[in-house]
Structure formats: C-alpha cells, structure tokens
Amino acid sequence: MSAPQTAALSPAPGKTNFIRLIIEQDLASGKHGRIHTRFPPEPNGYLHIGHAKSIVLNFGLAEDYQGQCNLRFDDTNPHKENIEFVQAIEADVRWLGYRWGGRTYFASDYFQQLHDYAVDLIRQGLAYVCDLSAEETRAYRGTLTEPGRDSPYRNRTVEENLDLFARMRAGEFPDGARTLRARIDMASPNINLRDPVLYRIKHGVTHHQTGSEWCLYPMYDYTHPISDALEGITHSLCTLEFEDHRPLYDWVIDHLDLPCKPRQIEFSRLNLEYTVMSKRLLTQLVSEGHVEGWDDPRLPTLAGLRRRGYTPAAIRVFCDRIGITKAENRVEMSLLENTVREDLDASQERRLAVLHPLKVVIEDYPADQRETIELANHPKDEDRGARALDFGREVWIDRADFAADPPKGYKRLVPGGEVRLRGAYVIRCERVIKDAEGDVIELRCSHDPATLGRNPEGRKVKGVIHWVPAASAVRAEVRLYDRLFAVPTPGAGGGNFLDDLNPDSLRTLTGCLVELALRGARPGDGFQFEREGYFVVDPESRPEHLIFNRTVGLRDTWASQSP
Ligand code: ATP
Ligand code: MG
User: Fold this and answer.
1) Contact (CB, 8 A) for 56 and 62
2) Best of 38, 49, 54 to mutate for ligand 1, by most ligand atoms within 8 A of CB?
C-alpha cells in the first residue's frame, strides 16, 4: 500500500499535537502506509471522561487519517471484570459517536497465541518458571537504588521450564505456587525489566469470555504488545504511567516473531477538579452507595454525564480543546461546563419552569379570561418556531423573584414595585399575603394592559421574570446537582477522599411547576429553563411524574434584555 497524501488528510489547523506529528512523519517517510489505533479499556468499571480523552484521540486519529481504530477489551484480570462492563463500554463509545465496524476484540481472544509465544520465549531461553512466592519475588526485585538478585530458579533448563509451564497450564499447581517470568536483567535500572512476571496461576475463576478454560492468566505488560501486533496496530497510545513500561513493551515485540512492530507513545492523563477518575475510587463510590450507581449524574462517568444531559459533541470538543501533551495537568471543571453550555445554548429549546413556586393573583384580570402568549423556542433561531402559553388571572413565579425586603440593586418584584412577566404583561405587586408564621404565601398584583409583550413609549421596566400559568402548569421534580466533592483535589494530603464529599451535591425539588409544553417531554430530551439553566429529562421520568436533571447552570444574562 502506498503512503496516502498526508496533506489532504491533515486535520484542521490548531488541532495538531506531537502524536499527529509523529504519524504524519511515519506516513510521509513510508514507514506506515496506513494508520491503525486501538482503544483498550479493561472491563472492570464504566468509562469516564478521562477515557473519553483517549477515545477521542484514538478514534479521531483513525478518522482524520482514514485509518482504523479497534475496540479491544484488556481482559486479563477476570476477578474484577464482567460482561456488564463490556456492554456498558461499547454503549458509551457508540454514544460518543464512534464506530469500529465490528472490530471488537478481547485480549482473551489471544490467550492461546499468548501461551504459544510464551513457549517460544522459553525455547529461546528468555523466560523461566519461578517458584518464588509473591513476597519473595518482591524482595528479590530490589529497589530504585539497589539492584535486584537473580531468582534461584533463573537458570532452569529449557526442558524443565517447558515441562513446568505445561503443568502450570494443566492446573497441577495452586495459585501463587509458580509464575512464568521473562529473563531480562535483574540489575536493570528500570525495575520493569527485572525479570517481570508474564503469567500467574488463577484457579476457580470464571472468565466472562473464556469461562474456566484457563487457569493461567497473562500479565498486561506481556499481553498488550502482542495484542497490538496481532491486530496490526501501528501506534499504541497510552497514558504516561506506561512510559517506564515501554522498554518491556519493546522487548516483547523485539524477541518474538510478530506480524508487525507497533510503537507505544504516551500522553498525559486528563485529571479534572472536584472529582475522582480512578476506577478503584469510582467503584468504591458506587459499591458503598455514596452515589446511586455508575450513571449517577454527579459522576464523571460517561453514563453519568449522559444522564446529566451532557452531549457527545460537547465532550468531543472539550477533549479537542484540552489537547494532547506529555505535561501532567488538572483541568478546571469550568472548562468542561463552558463547553457544554456553549453546545446547549445553540441546540436546546427554551421553556419556562418555576422551581420554587409562589402564587400570583392578578386581581384586575378577569377570572374567565384567557390569552395566548407566544414564546419563541429559540431566541437566535426563528425557524425553530414558538409555543403558546395560556395566560390567565393566576400565575406562578419563583420565590427568589420577589423580595419583601429587597437588597440594594434588586431588579425584580418588590411590594409596590413592577416587573415584567416574560413575554406577557408588566405587573405591580399590590399586596403581600403571609401565613401565620409570617412566610409569604401569595402576592396580589395588578397589571398594565398596555404592556402586553412590549414596552409602550417612555415606559421601561427593568426586571423580567419567568412564570407559568396556574391553569395549565404541570408538576415536576427537579434535581439540582453540584460538584460531588467540596475540594478541587479529593483526598489530597493523605486524607480519606470520602471526607471531601460535598454533602449538598444533590438537592431534589419535588414541587416545581413547568409549562404545559413540557408535559410530553421524554427521557433524554433537553431544554433551557429560562434563567435557571439547562435541564434534561431523567430516564426515570414518567408523563405522570416528570423528572428533570439540571445539566449545568446559566449565567443570568437576559433579565435586563427586551421582553
Ligand atoms: P485504572 O484507573 O484502574 O488504572 P484506567 O483508568 O487506566 O484504569 P483502562 O481501562 O486501563 O483504565 O483505560 C483504558 C485506556 O484509557 C487506557 O489506554 C488508558 O491509558 C486510558 N485512560 C484511562 N484514564 C485516562 C485519563 N484520565 N486520561 C486519559 N486517558 C485515560
Ligand atoms: Mg489501566
């Protein structure tokens, strides 16, 4: 295959990064005629936004250079893996907008080949069966400052190693009794090269793909380069913690007769403030019930972000914006939120919803009168049409839009003051009705008939508030989410990360009232509730019990704009 014309395939300027430069050089020099990447999750949890960075990188490169990207499950550790995670991962990658044309692979697809390659290493004198226990192996390994010591089993003959490895495979030895190790260099300054374990024995586990066929399981560092090579991967992209493992990756590739020589390239992980991204910690949050499941909208999991109302487009753009480098970093949550807001501002229709309802009776408006108020679905896009609200004598406004004792600069409703009801009339607060405890329970207002949907000459009312008609308001539950953790780096300073959980990360409002047009909203539908933020219908929502999740708040920008 001849090298494709790189110029025509180059991505948009500004999107480039050091990995793209390497790929372009490889294409230009003819080292590779095509590019092939893979995304290799371990199915031991749900994907999170950090994985999205890797997905967007790997699938994005394949798209931009007309190559291919495989989805490969790195399933060599059956204890913590299961088929639920496999399915959830596939659904999440698809949701992000990527397809892999049936190229779903499992490292376990290669168990037989991996075994045969191990036999090959033994034959070359490059691997041996070691009887040291895990603890002894650690002690023999040495430290960063001290070299390791050779295992007493290091010089077994090829025949003895072949025999013992076959008997390990046949299940003759219990867990931990023996391992297969690469025979590299116990004095290497790189600890990963000090005769790393290639295989361990695990009895009594049922692997989600291979059942109980194997009692030998290969280690990640051995499995990964071979899986890459067998799939024809050209560029094997992973996060920085594997940098020190690259010499081992290359050692495996160099000492076996493999169909291709992939190159490992590392980039820095995405870390986000006010959340955690380690699967171990996410698993703990879910299994101990600190959140309601892997798709809890407070989690950085893709399932959680989806339920929260984040869009695949916003996540992809965010991943492009943070870029790919080798620098360790922690990205501010606001960068993610701003990207989501930008996307939703353009895409979501506007609706009126009152989260903390306060009844307003417009006393000079006839009880039997109804007027239709048309409100545009999108302020920047007339083509998206309008919907009608049925204006009448009684409406609901938000408690926060009335102040009996207003702070300075308050532009909304006050006793004796005026405010505009969005798209309808200017009303004046005539009387405040309180209950026995002195809490405001109702406002009695008047309206100015000359102000319907416009300001007459010389009349300017500063405040504009949202409302819903009492006659047709629909009850709804609204869930307001905040950061899951109260500090930017949970668990920093050696504390328990659970101590940093934000106790107010979820506030559930049950008595909200929304406009009639929302009655038929279906799970996944998203809207901007004017002045409140972006909301999405929760999967548990039913027509008789609507539930909206707040995706992200809104800066209150239109209160001083035209009606
Ligand atoms: P663990 O938290 O258990 O170490 P992991 O997050 O590395 O697991 P994997 O399933 O091994 O999870 O990850 C699959 C791929 O996603 C790997 O190539 C990994 O480098 C990449 N990845 C994982 N987390 C991030 C992150 N925060 N930023 C960028 N890439 C990531
Ligand atoms: Mg990993």
Assistant:
1) no
2) 54
